[in-house]
Specification:
The chain is α/β, with parallel strands linked by helices and 327 residues long. The protein has helices at residues 6-23, 65-73, 96-99, 114-119, 132-142, 158-172, 175-196, 223-230, 236-239, 250-256, 275-278, 281-284, 287-290, 299-302, 309-321; strands at 40-42, 51-53, 60-62, 80-84, 104-106, 124-128, 148-151, 204-209, 216-217, 234-235, 246-247, 260-265, 294-298. The protein folds into two domains: 35-173, Rossmann fold; 200-325, Nitrogenase molybdenum iron protein domain (Rossmann fold, 3-Layer(aba) Sandwich). The strands form three sheets. Strands 8, 9, 10, 11, 12 and 13 form a six-stranded mixed β-sheet that branches. Strands 5-4-3-6-7 form a five-stranded parallel β-sheet, sandwiched between helices. The chain has a two-stranded antiparallel sheet with strand order 1-2. The two termini are 36 Å apart.
Amino acid sequence: MNHRPLSVISAAVLALGLAACASTPAPSDGEQPVAEAFPVTIDVPGADAPLTIDAEPERIAALSSDAAIAVHELGLTDRLVAIPAAAQNPALNPYADEMSGIENVVAGENSPEPEQVLAWSPDLIVVTARHTGEQDASDVLDATGVPVLTLTNGWSSSEAVVENLDLIGQATGVGAESSALADEVLVGIDDVRERAAEATSSPSVAILSNQARVPFINSASSLVSELVTNGGGTNIAQEIGIDKTMPIQPEQLIAANPDAIMLVDVTGKGESSFDAILSNPAVAALPAVRDGRVRLFLGKDVYALAGREIVSGSNAVLEWLHPEIVE
């Protein structure tokens, strides 16, 4: 997709919201808002054909944790009939407690079983086509007659999140709510960026995560990298030629010599899970480590982002990197 400045997108989202308010009379006291009309036809980026949904969905199967988080942020948790196990992981999902009562859980997010999903009688399936298993499931489920909203941008930027919120809002009949949430996110990010612009430096940051047995370094194409940029830093991965999230070796981190190191705990195992690299004597001697410019962030706060946490996560990075300009 084309990447426009956030201020432009924010203005567009706000304009859409104002237009919606102008065209739909506000309900008087005691009245319920008028429901959006169905059927709806949605142009989904990357899809072979538009998606038509005949009736407002009441039973939503979200097969990706980011999709489940977005559905929750749009106030539709009570419509969720299935979510992936990752969405009930408090290390990854800030709303894990609210989703703990959802009856049906997909054990493997990367390879959901289509037959199992259909047994839960969903009237809308939302899936992120990020992994091969998720794409395969999407292709199979598309042939069943149940509407499948397949999100193809990987939630890899704030613009991608806004696009997905809009698509989910259209598909579920809460377009006004999705526009309002998108505007809240974009205005919040603009605010963080404006404050970060007051800083006189842009520290280089190595973003390490613990989703595997050895720490991974996160590339510039990840959403957490945008949080670092929003907070007034730069992702060191791009500077040393790393263009995809991958295992990091001590020698690479030593050569990069970042000003700060961001540890993202997506497993709930804490800082000790990064010992494979941080305990290396040469790594321990790096100025960032020696001088205490290493911070552990919970994955739920900076990694599994599909809404408001983009703003709070960006603000947390700003407070860490530039405490001197934080009010």
